[in-house]
């Protein structure tokens, strides 16, 4: 499937008449309903009216991307509109505002979670490009907007895999690395965890902030306070504190399946392995950041 399969003229509003974001959402929803794309209009209307913060991706001054998962639609549907002047949105309790002229609404049933995530991510990445925004805003008609070639160039796979979002060639640490050195490496790199690999590149453990905190607290209590260890104290290594029970995943596993596993097991990061050897790393933050193109 390509984005051009989702951007059809009958679901495009040019120009939007609303002067605020909730009004634009209602206008786009009305267009979806009129096109017959919504099986339960009132249910989706109620969902849109909730205005949950997590349903909105604001892309600077380029676009607002509204996205909903709801059984009110049978299949993933998209509505797109452009406003003649910027539509503003307040940012929380601050006095700052965000404005954009492009409003995109994506709705999908829960069973299409992977396609939904892939579609939201594809649109977010595409609309982050100034030249794309200019081309969209330059179209005075729905037919002209739907015919833009850039939408046909973007393929949306209905099954994202771990390999599509993982960090390749990730940082790792040896089990024999002094613990202090490993901790400093994590701080300097700004990472919250490191896979521990042996000489053959096989994952044998994980070193995270939790393990470091447990070690520091244990040492603090044993010494009776923040006093340095004696000269004969053994230098502790990563092997001494790493966790050996590691959830590893394959590059080919469906992303939705892995995201569910991470949530159910309360795991923030997982090594990606092929035949036991480290080939990548995936975190919850990666999933969020990369899907919305930041």
TrEMBL record:
Annotated ranges, domain CBS: 166-223, 242-294
Superkingdom of origin: Bacteria
Gene3D superfamilies the record matches: CBS-domain, Mannitol-specific EII, Chain A
Keywords (A to Z) from UniProt: CBS domain
Pfam family, one: PTS_EIIA_2
Domain PTS EIIA type-2: 5-154
Protein name as it appears in the record: CBS domain containing protein
Protein species of origin: Gemmatirosa kalamazoonensis
